[in-house]
User: Which sequence fits this backbone?
């Protein structure tokens, strides 16, 4: 097949798949891939069963079940104070990654430039390339991963078509501030540039920090796709249901792609989520729920030689192993998995250029017993 021209010649199997496979091979505790090891609410499962038994098993409308879109609209208006019309501005997707992919497909043309901030979710840059776009990464570094907005402004050109942001951020666990959004709004003003805002961890913030959305800024709101995830919201990552919110003009272009990409999403699960969204405490209490887990992991890591960076949001934290080893991050994670049976993710995997800050990402969306067992093993790591 020497006539096959790969659209992603430099892309291989994701680090998440590789580390999970290595964890299974060595019977390691998997703190690498970002999924909970506990189940979702029994109430939600009952609602799915009820929807299935009541015959809600055929194609859903292309844009999503209206009852769910209405509940999302009500939720956004209650929590953010902004109104999006459920008919024309909200689309249900097969997970957040599909929503991100579809939004990029809607606006990126060959040769367009896309600014993204690294360390970045590994789906961003390959998706940009699939549509002929050119990723323009801005490297952020530990310990604060602060954005130099002056440098971002200098990177803007007439070909800049999209800026991708992610807050709360995976993997840095940093939350963008009001000042960050003011700078972003200033940069895009009077430019033909869109914003793609990945907000899947919107309710997972800690220590009294408030999540800010692009929806809070009128300039950003009119040019932004906002992506969210029920998998992150309700501990149900395997169901792959998310949504995209955008102004009507952008939604119209989004749905042109969506209808030929996925068309519609799991019908009974949509009906169940519509019912479950009435229970506001289930998502409003998410920050407190995961802060307990974060604090448990932080306390447990005190008995190890790992240093921990500040964690403002998401269910990940970054650990510094510089007092343990000089190994590159990829090698360190492999050896940690093989020798101590704990799987983590090298933060260098989230950069396009070789970067070694001796950092690993740890997922703490786990049961207390899982975290305690992992911490016991990590406490035995003195040198690698």
Assistant:
């Amino acid at each position: 097949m020497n006539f096959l021209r790969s659209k992603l010649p430099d892309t291989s199997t994701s680090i998440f798949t590789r580390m999970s496979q290595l964890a299974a091979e060595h019977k390691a505790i998997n703190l690498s891939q970002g999924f909970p090891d506990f189940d979702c609410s029994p109430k939600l499962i009952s609602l799915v069963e009820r929807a299935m038994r009541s015959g809600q098993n055929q194609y859903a409308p292309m844009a999503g079940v209206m009852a769910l879109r209405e509940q999302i609209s009500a939720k956004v208006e209650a929590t953010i104070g902004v109104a999006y019309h459920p008919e024309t501005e909200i689309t249900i997707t097969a997970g957040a990654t599909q929503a991100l992919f579809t939004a990029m497909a809607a606006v990126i043309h060959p040769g367009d430039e896309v600014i993204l901030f690294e360390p970045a979710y590994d789906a961003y840059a390959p998706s940009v390339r699939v549509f002929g776009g050119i990723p323009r990464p801005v490297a952020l570094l530990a310990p604060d991963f602060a954005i130099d907005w002056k440098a971002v402004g200098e990177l803007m050109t007439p070909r800049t078509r999209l800026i991708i942001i992610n807050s709360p951020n995976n993997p840095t666990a940093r939350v963008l501030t009001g000042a960050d959004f003011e700078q972003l709004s200033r940069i895009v003003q009077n430019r033909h540039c869109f914003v793609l805002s990945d907000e899947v961890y919107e309710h997972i913030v800690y220590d009294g920090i408030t999540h800010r959305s692009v929806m809070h800024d009128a300039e950003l709101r009119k040019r932004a796709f906002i992506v969210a995830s029920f998998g992150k919201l309700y501990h149900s990552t395997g169901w792959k249901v998310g949504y995209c919110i955008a102004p009507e003009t952008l939604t119209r272009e989004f749905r042109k792609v969506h209808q030929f990409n996925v068309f519609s999403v799991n019908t009974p699960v949509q009906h169940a989520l519509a019912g479950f969204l009435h229970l506001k405490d289930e998502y409003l209490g998410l920050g407190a729920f995961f802060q307990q887990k974060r604090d448990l992991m932080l306390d447990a890591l005190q008995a190890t030689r790992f240093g921990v960076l500040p964690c403002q949001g998401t269910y990940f934290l970054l650990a510094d192993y510089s007092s343990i080893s000089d190994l590159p991050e990829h090698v360190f994670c492999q050896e940690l998995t093989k020798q101590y049976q704990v799987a983590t993710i090298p933060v260098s995997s989230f950069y396009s250029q070789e970067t070694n800050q001796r950092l690993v990402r740890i997922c703490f969306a786990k049961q207390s017993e899982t975290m305690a067992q992992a911490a016991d093993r990590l406490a035995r790591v003195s040198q690698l």
